[in-house]
Amino acid sequence: MDLNSISLEPIRTKRVAILGYGNQGRAQALNLRDSGVRVRVGARNGVGAELAKKDGFNVESFESAIGQSDIVMYLFPDQVIPQIYEATQKFLKPLQAIGFAHGFCYHFKWIKPVAECRYFLVGSKGAGAVLRDAFERGGGLPGVYALDREDESFEILVQSYAKAVGLASQVLLKTTFQEETECDLFGEQTVLCGGLPQLMESAFETLVEAGFSSEMAFLECCYEAKTIVELWMKYGPYEITKRISPTAFYGGLITGQRMVDEKTKAEMKKVLHEIQSGQFARKWKAEVESGEANLVAERERLKHSEIEKVYRDLSVTATF
Question: Are 152 and 203 within one domain?
Fold first, then answer.
């Protein structure tokens, strides 16, 4: 895809309603406005609505924002979207385009599509705050988009939307609701929010339990994880081997496969099956209905953990 050929004109002819003004909603609303797009913000009373007002938006009710827009973006956390969508579905109009930043609720049928509307997703490979910062610096982030069904003119519009929010400056991949959802969940669980944090904390605890200082353990097992990932992304898996010491390269060679072996990969396959079968979605729904008890407990554990204490102490003088 030639990203330079994507025009902003298609999205500039439309009116966009951003429902929700959190991390993703704020970034997309501001980037759209700065790209010359007519934006309306629908938000409930609270922190988000007040922030939107400070940013210069006239905050409206969901009904008003939907009623005066061609495109409606539901930019809430996955567990919140169903209740907002159910409450506002009656306001949706034929031929409106309904968008999301993640395909979870659409793919797992947590919402019921309106036959006369079109559905799409435009997702950034990074948090909203990161997207906004990159956009303000004249760039953007890699992004993906998906359509509920093939339609050339609709695809051109969605690509234009992606460019307006800063997702067509580097990589913009066409995907499907299924692929985006399942890959996103798998990456979060096995690497980004599950595997990597757990690996860092376990390594940290191993050193501390062996009598090493918690500060040294943090720098070696946590802080340097950031620097090595940055090197890996800048130079790739081959060139990075020339930029680390031979000792580190050899140690990683003989030890890495002990940490991540065939048993680990077998577990990854189980995780993927749980995602694809809908088992994880059912577990997540039960967690939400329980008041997110496990999430509350884990946040409380982390709040009082040794690794959190060291992070706080060191971040007073260091920039991580």
Answer: no
